[in-house]
Design a protein that fits this description.
The protein is 63% helix and 2% strand. With 209 residues, the chain is an all-alpha fold.
Length: 209
């Protein structure tokens, strides 16, 4: 079966850009639909079923911190950006180096005001503004471990995706990575933030946590 995507489009390196555009458009429309649904049912006293969209809050009580989807977006952009920089095949390309530098600058500017995004309020100099500093420390720690050669989720060796096309081998890697990520989530929920984050690179720490 012939691929609907022209071969010259794939060879030009624009295929990732195409997927980025598709993901952007679909996510925008899905997000708008979900938000409209939540707003339309905001006054409905009936308990929500597990499959019904709802707001994400740290606390269900009145005054609880509402997690806006911009926070999820910032986290995903940061993770994907660091991942693309980390997985670069040739780090010696000047244009890519410049792009990586600008990504670092932009990430620092965003994380410096992460608390404002989280609270949607000017808490830069308030106690809640400490969240921005914590976010910067986390980013530096994670990036530092990557620079030192540690692989996230320990078992997630990217060489498998470059050299081994065996489906079974990839499934094993994904399964082990999922288990490691599950342990990290448990440790994070227990309030051991640093143990959970560093443990994603050094698995024994997750077992201790």
């Amino acid at each position: 079966m012939r691929s609907p995507i022209p071969a010259e489009f794939v060879s030009s390196g624009r295929l990732p850009l195409l997927w980025c555009l598709v993901a952007f458009i679909l996510t925008f429309f899905v997000t708008r639909t979900v938000v409209r649904y939540i707003r339309a049912n905001a006054d409905n006293p009936a308990p929500r079923k597990w499959w019904q969209p709802r707001n994400i809050s740290v606390s269900e009580a009145a005054g609880g911190l509402h997690i806006h989807h911009v926070v999820i977006g910032v986290v995903l952009v940061m993770l994907s950006g660091v991942t693309m920089v980390t997985l670069a095949v040739d780090g010696g390309v000047p244009e890519f180096t410049v792009a990586a530098v600008f990504f670092g600058i932009g990430a620092a500017l965003v994380l410096d005001e992460f608390a404002l995004i989280l609270h949607l309020s000017d808490v830069y100099w308030a106690e809640d503004g400490r969240t921005s500093v914590d976010a910067v420390f986390v980013a530096v720690a994670v990036a530092g471990l990557l620079v030192l050669g540690f692989n996230p989720l320990s078992f997630f060796d990217i060489t498998v995706w470059r050299t081994d096309q065996n489906v079974a081998a990839r499934l094993v890697v994904v399964a082990l990575a999922a288990v490691t990520l599950g342990l990290a989530v448990i440790v994070l929920f227990k309030g051991k933030v640093w143990t959970g984050l560093i443990g994603m690179f050094i698995t024994p720490l997750l077992v201790i946590g």
